[in-house]
Amino acid sequence: METLVSAADVAEHVSAADWESVEARLRERPCATLPWRLSAEECARLAALWGDTGAFRSHVDMGRHRFGIGEYRYFAHPLPPLVDTLRRQCYAPLAAIANRWSESLGGRERFPAAFEEFEARCARAGQDRPTPLLLRYEAGGYNCLHQDVYGAVAFPMQVVLFLSRPGLDYEGGEFLLVQQRPRAQSVAEVVPAGQGEMVVFANRYWPAAGSRGPYRTNVRHGVSRVRAGTRLALGIIFHDAA
Questions:
Q1: What is the pLDDT of residues 137-190, one digit of tens each?
Q2: Which of the chain's termini has less CB crowding within 10 Å, N or C?
Q3: Virtual CA dihedral for 102, 107, 109, 112, nearest 10 degrees?
Q4: pTM score of the predicted model
Q5: Average pLDDT estimate for 101-105
Q6: 166 preceded by cis ω (within 30°)?
Protein backbone atom coordinates (compact mmCIF):
# COMPACT_ATOMS: atom_id res chain seq x y z
CA MET A 1 0.00 0.00 0.00
CA GLU A 2 1.57 3.29 -1.12
CA THR A 3 1.72 6.39 1.08
CA LEU A 4 0.47 9.67 -0.40
CA VAL A 5 1.75 13.03 0.74
CA SER A 6 0.00 15.61 -1.45
CA ALA A 7 -3.07 16.36 -3.55
CA ALA A 8 -0.98 15.77 -6.68
CA ASP A 9 -0.08 12.30 -5.41
CA VAL A 10 -3.75 11.58 -4.82
CA ALA A 11 -4.74 12.52 -8.37
CA GLU A 12 -1.99 10.37 -9.85
CA HIS A 13 -2.56 7.29 -7.71
CA VAL A 14 -6.34 7.36 -7.77
CA SER A 15 -6.35 7.39 -11.57
CA ALA A 16 -3.84 4.50 -11.68
CA ALA A 17 -5.45 2.39 -8.94
CA ASP A 18 -6.78 -1.10 -9.59
CA TRP A 19 -10.46 -0.26 -9.24
CA GLU A 20 -11.46 -3.68 -10.55
CA SER A 21 -9.93 -5.20 -7.42
CA VAL A 22 -11.75 -2.63 -5.27
CA GLU A 23 -15.02 -3.56 -6.96
CA ALA A 24 -14.31 -7.26 -6.48
CA ARG A 25 -13.85 -6.70 -2.73
CA LEU A 26 -17.07 -4.68 -2.67
CA ARG A 27 -18.89 -7.67 -4.15
CA GLU A 28 -17.86 -9.72 -1.12
CA ARG A 29 -18.52 -7.13 1.60
CA PRO A 30 -20.12 -3.65 1.74
CA CYS A 31 -16.70 -2.04 2.26
CA ALA A 32 -13.16 -2.12 0.88
CA THR A 33 -9.85 -0.57 1.93
CA LEU A 34 -8.45 1.58 -0.86
CA PRO A 35 -4.96 0.67 -2.15
CA TRP A 36 -3.11 3.67 -0.76
CA ARG A 37 -2.82 5.54 2.51
CA LEU A 38 -2.17 9.11 3.56
CA SER A 39 1.10 9.99 5.25
CA ALA A 40 1.21 10.64 8.99
CA GLU A 41 2.14 14.25 8.23
CA GLU A 42 -0.90 14.79 6.02
CA CYS A 43 -3.13 13.14 8.64
CA ALA A 44 -1.76 15.54 11.25
CA ARG A 45 -2.37 18.53 8.98
CA LEU A 46 -5.95 17.48 8.33
CA ALA A 47 -6.57 16.84 12.03
CA ALA A 48 -5.16 20.27 12.87
CA LEU A 49 -7.88 21.89 10.75
CA TRP A 50 -10.26 21.13 13.62
CA GLY A 51 -8.98 24.26 15.34
CA ASP A 52 -9.54 26.48 12.28
CA THR A 53 -13.19 27.44 12.67
CA GLY A 54 -13.06 29.46 9.44
CA ALA A 55 -12.60 26.22 7.47
CA PHE A 56 -16.08 24.98 8.40
CA ARG A 57 -19.66 25.95 7.64
CA SER A 58 -21.24 24.30 10.70
CA HIS A 59 -20.51 22.47 13.94
CA VAL A 60 -22.69 19.64 15.29
CA ASP A 61 -22.76 18.38 18.88
CA MET A 62 -23.98 14.81 18.47
CA GLY A 63 -25.36 14.66 22.00
CA ARG A 64 -27.79 17.52 21.39
CA HIS A 65 -29.40 15.60 18.53
CA ARG A 66 -29.09 12.15 20.14
CA PHE A 67 -26.76 11.03 17.32
CA GLY A 68 -24.23 9.75 19.86
CA ILE A 69 -21.51 11.49 21.87
CA GLY A 70 -18.96 13.50 19.93
CA GLU A 71 -18.68 16.37 17.50
CA TYR A 72 -18.35 16.92 13.78
CA ARG A 73 -17.77 19.90 11.54
CA TYR A 74 -18.75 20.28 7.89
CA PHE A 75 -16.16 21.98 5.70
CA ALA A 76 -17.09 25.20 3.92
CA HIS A 77 -16.25 26.03 0.32
CA PRO A 78 -13.54 26.10 -0.85
CA LEU A 79 -12.69 22.66 0.52
CA PRO A 80 -9.08 22.03 1.60
CA PRO A 81 -7.17 21.01 -1.57
CA LEU A 82 -6.46 17.46 -0.41
CA VAL A 83 -10.10 16.88 0.61
CA ASP A 84 -11.38 18.35 -2.66
CA THR A 85 -8.99 16.23 -4.72
CA LEU A 86 -9.92 13.02 -2.91
CA ARG A 87 -13.61 13.74 -3.40
CA ARG A 88 -13.35 14.58 -7.09
CA GLN A 89 -10.87 11.86 -8.06
CA CYS A 90 -12.59 9.02 -6.20
CA TYR A 91 -16.03 9.90 -7.53
CA ALA A 92 -15.65 8.74 -11.14
CA PRO A 93 -14.55 5.12 -10.53
CA LEU A 94 -17.05 4.79 -7.69
CA ALA A 95 -19.85 6.17 -9.89
CA ALA A 96 -19.19 3.41 -12.41
CA ILE A 97 -19.45 0.83 -9.62
CA ALA A 98 -22.61 2.49 -8.25
CA ASN A 99 -24.23 2.32 -11.68
CA ARG A 100 -23.53 -1.40 -11.89
CA TRP A 101 -24.98 -1.82 -8.40
CA SER A 102 -28.18 -0.07 -9.43
CA GLU A 103 -28.43 -2.04 -12.67
CA SER A 104 -27.90 -5.36 -10.87
CA LEU A 105 -30.81 -4.55 -8.56
CA GLY A 106 -33.10 -3.50 -11.41
CA GLY A 107 -32.92 0.16 -10.41
CA ARG A 108 -33.21 3.08 -12.82
CA GLU A 109 -30.93 5.47 -10.96
CA ARG A 110 -27.69 6.30 -12.78
CA PHE A 111 -24.86 8.62 -11.79
CA PRO A 112 -22.95 10.85 -14.23
CA ALA A 113 -19.32 9.99 -14.92
CA ALA A 114 -17.93 13.39 -13.94
CA PHE A 115 -18.13 14.79 -10.41
CA GLU A 116 -18.94 18.27 -11.76
CA GLU A 117 -22.10 16.87 -13.39
CA PHE A 118 -23.12 15.13 -10.20
CA GLU A 119 -22.48 18.31 -8.21
CA ALA A 120 -24.71 20.20 -10.65
CA ARG A 121 -27.44 17.57 -10.20
CA CYS A 122 -27.28 18.14 -6.44
CA ALA A 123 -27.52 21.90 -6.95
CA ARG A 124 -30.60 21.54 -9.16
CA ALA A 125 -32.23 19.60 -6.33
CA GLY A 126 -31.45 22.45 -3.90
CA GLN A 127 -28.47 20.62 -2.39
CA ASP A 128 -25.55 23.04 -2.55
CA ARG A 129 -23.87 22.84 0.87
CA PRO A 130 -20.64 20.78 1.01
CA THR A 131 -20.74 17.62 3.13
CA PRO A 132 -17.11 16.46 3.70
CA LEU A 133 -16.54 16.64 7.45
CA LEU A 134 -14.16 16.10 10.33
CA LEU A 135 -15.38 13.94 13.21
CA ARG A 136 -13.89 14.02 16.72
CA TYR A 137 -14.57 11.69 19.64
CA GLU A 138 -13.14 11.81 23.15
CA ALA A 139 -13.24 8.97 25.69
CA GLY A 140 -16.84 7.82 26.04
CA GLY A 141 -17.79 9.04 22.58
CA TYR A 142 -19.60 7.00 19.95
CA ASN A 143 -21.72 7.43 16.82
CA CYS A 144 -25.14 5.79 16.47
CA LEU A 145 -25.85 3.67 13.41
CA HIS A 146 -27.08 5.91 10.60
CA GLN A 147 -27.05 6.79 6.91
CA ASP A 148 -25.81 10.13 5.57
CA VAL A 149 -28.65 11.15 3.24
CA TYR A 150 -29.27 14.89 2.90
CA GLY A 151 -31.89 15.17 0.17
CA ALA A 152 -33.39 13.58 -2.92
CA VAL A 153 -29.96 13.11 -4.52
CA ALA A 154 -27.80 10.65 -2.60
CA PHE A 155 -24.75 8.65 -3.64
CA PRO A 156 -24.70 5.05 -2.31
CA MET A 157 -21.06 5.06 -1.18
CA GLN A 158 -18.73 7.26 0.81
CA VAL A 159 -15.14 7.20 2.05
CA VAL A 160 -13.77 7.46 5.58
CA LEU A 161 -10.14 8.41 6.21
CA PHE A 162 -8.72 7.47 9.61
CA LEU A 163 -6.56 10.31 10.96
CA SER A 164 -5.67 8.92 14.41
CA ARG A 165 -3.61 5.90 15.44
CA PRO A 166 -5.64 3.07 17.01
CA GLY A 167 -3.93 1.71 20.10
CA LEU A 168 -1.81 4.86 20.47
CA ASP A 169 -4.06 7.91 20.13
CA TYR A 170 -7.21 6.10 21.21
CA GLU A 171 -8.66 2.78 22.32
CA GLY A 172 -11.98 1.38 21.12
CA GLY A 173 -13.82 3.54 18.60
CA GLU A 174 -14.14 0.79 15.99
CA PHE A 175 -15.83 1.64 12.69
CA LEU A 176 -19.02 -0.43 12.34
CA LEU A 177 -21.21 -1.51 9.43
CA VAL A 178 -24.59 -3.21 9.81
CA GLN A 179 -26.48 -4.83 6.91
CA GLN A 180 -30.25 -4.89 7.34
CA ARG A 181 -31.28 -7.92 5.29
CA PRO A 182 -34.88 -8.43 4.16
CA ARG A 183 -36.73 -11.09 6.17
CA ALA A 184 -33.52 -11.99 8.01
CA GLN A 185 -31.49 -10.83 10.97
CA SER A 186 -28.97 -8.04 10.50
CA VAL A 187 -25.26 -8.65 9.97
CA ALA A 188 -22.74 -6.47 11.81
CA GLU A 189 -19.01 -6.21 11.27
CA VAL A 190 -16.08 -4.21 12.55
CA VAL A 191 -13.89 -2.55 9.90
CA PRO A 192 -10.28 -2.27 11.11
CA ALA A 193 -8.03 0.46 9.70
CA GLY A 194 -4.80 2.20 10.66
CA GLN A 195 -3.86 5.86 10.47
CA GLY A 196 -3.99 7.16 6.92
CA GLU A 197 -6.02 4.27 5.55
CA MET A 198 -9.17 4.98 3.56
CA VAL A 199 -12.23 2.75 3.42
CA VAL A 200 -15.01 3.04 0.86
CA PHE A 201 -18.31 1.67 2.14
CA ALA A 202 -21.97 1.38 1.24
CA ASN A 203 -23.79 4.32 2.75
CA ARG A 204 -27.34 3.53 1.61
CA TYR A 205 -27.69 0.07 0.10
CA TRP A 206 -25.53 -2.84 -1.03
CA PRO A 207 -26.26 -5.60 -3.58
CA ALA A 208 -25.69 -8.79 -1.60
CA ALA A 209 -25.26 -12.04 -3.54
CA GLY A 210 -28.24 -14.38 -3.27
CA SER A 211 -29.17 -17.74 -4.79
CA ARG A 212 -31.40 -15.95 -7.29
CA GLY A 213 -29.03 -13.07 -7.97
CA PRO A 214 -28.22 -9.84 -6.15
CA TYR A 215 -30.68 -8.49 -3.61
CA ARG A 216 -30.79 -5.17 -1.81
CA THR A 217 -29.65 -4.80 1.79
CA ASN A 218 -29.76 -1.46 3.58
CA VAL A 219 -26.49 -0.52 5.27
CA ARG A 220 -25.92 1.73 8.27
CA HIS A 221 -22.62 2.75 9.80
CA GLY A 222 -21.41 4.04 13.14
CA VAL A 223 -18.55 4.10 15.65
CA SER A 224 -18.33 2.03 18.82
CA ARG A 225 -17.55 3.70 22.13
CA VAL A 226 -14.08 5.21 22.49
CA ARG A 227 -12.58 3.82 25.68
CA ALA A 228 -9.63 6.22 25.94
CA GLY A 229 -7.91 9.02 24.04
CA THR A 230 -9.09 11.09 21.07
CA ARG A 231 -10.21 9.75 17.69
CA LEU A 232 -10.43 11.93 14.56
CA ALA A 233 -11.58 10.92 11.09
CA LEU A 234 -12.38 12.59 7.78
CA GLY A 235 -15.63 11.67 6.08
CA ILE A 236 -15.91 12.20 2.33
CA ILE A 237 -19.56 12.30 1.27
CA PHE A 238 -20.12 12.85 -2.43
CA HIS A 239 -23.62 14.36 -2.51
CA ASP A 240 -24.16 17.85 -1.11
CA ALA A 241 -26.78 18.85 1.45
CA ALA A 242 -29.93 20.93 1.15
A1: 999 999 999 999 999 999 999 999 999 999 999 999 999 999 998 888 999 999
A2: N
A3: 40
A4: 0.95
A5: 97
A6: no
CATH code at position 203 = 2.60.120.620
How many Cβ atoms are within 10 Å of 20's Cβ, its own excluded?
Answer: 9
Residues 52, 53, 55, CA angle at the centre, nearest 5°? 75
Which range marks the domain in which residue 29 is found?
A: 2-237
Note whether residue 187 is domain-resident: yes
C-alpha distances in Å from residue 81, one per residue of 10, 45, 113, 148, 168: 11, 12, 21, 23, 28
Distance of alpha carbon 11 from alpha carbon 218, whole angstroms? 31
- DSSP for the chain? -EEE-SHHHHHHHHHHS-HHHHHHHHHHSSEEEEEEEE-HHHHHHHHHGGG-GGGEEEEEEHHHHTSEESEEEEEPSSPPHHHHHHHHHHHHHHHHHHHHHHHHTT------SSHHHHHHHHHHTT--B---EEEEEETT-EEEEE----SS---SEEEEEE-S-BTTTEEE--EEEEEE-TTS--EEEEE---TTEEEEEESSEEEEEETTEEEEEEEEEEEPPEEEEEEEEEEEESS-B-
pLDDT tens-digit series, residues 161-175: 999 999 999 999 999
Residue 4 pLDDT > 80: no
How many independent structural domains does the chain possess?
Answer: 1
